[in-house]
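Input structure tokens:
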């Protein structure tokens, strides 16, 4: 069985934020919710900035899953940690339990209140984010099922992000 992950070559990342935009576009997360973030780390002694991608780690032993009293968080095949929107009651225990602070609560806010844009009416369940419920990176499980890379990886112009099976010695993440 695969155990999916993303490896980032920080020497190649330019901090362009394309991965952040690709994630937003693919998943249509609500305003103020970002599943994919870029941290800027300054090193004064080396006179350089290193960019670091910050997204759900899809932990082997997820603390968020243990904290969820309604069983809304689960690990599916490939080690991907997901939230069942139908089971989530928005208690926020998972948000507090995530050691990385990478679970958001969806705000009751739309980009264009009262108006649905054509791409919002496509009916893709991965683009539905009910207000008041927990929300986090899904590693684009819907794309993986189609044999594609996560949107952040596919969109990276500097090829700093590599997707693959962390347990497969022949996977691109092993090189």
């Amino acid at each position: 069985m695969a155990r999916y992950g993303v490896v980032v070559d920080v020497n190649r990342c330019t901090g362009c934020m394309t991965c952040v935009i690709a994630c937003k576009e693919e998943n249509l997360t609500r305003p103020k919710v970002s599943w994919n973030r870029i941290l800027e780390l300054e090193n004064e002694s080396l006179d350089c900035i290193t960019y670091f991608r910050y997204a759900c780690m899809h932990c082997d032993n997820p603390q968020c899953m243990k904290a969820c009293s309604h069983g809304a968080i689960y690990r599916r095949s490939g080690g991907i940690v997901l939230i069942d929107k139908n089971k989530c009651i928005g208690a926020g225990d998972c948000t507090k339990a995530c050691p990385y602070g990478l679970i958001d609560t969806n705000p009751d806010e739309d980009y264009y209140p009262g108006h649905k844009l054509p791409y919002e009416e496509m009916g893709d369940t991965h683009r539905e984010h009910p207000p008041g419920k927990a929300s986090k990176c899904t590693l684009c499980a819907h794309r993986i099922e189609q044999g594609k890379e996560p949107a952040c990886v596919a969109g990276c112009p500097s090829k700093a992000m590599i997707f693959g099976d962390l347990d497969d010695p022949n996977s691109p993440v092993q090189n």
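The chain has a mean pLDDT of 92. The first strand starts at residue 4 and ends at 8.
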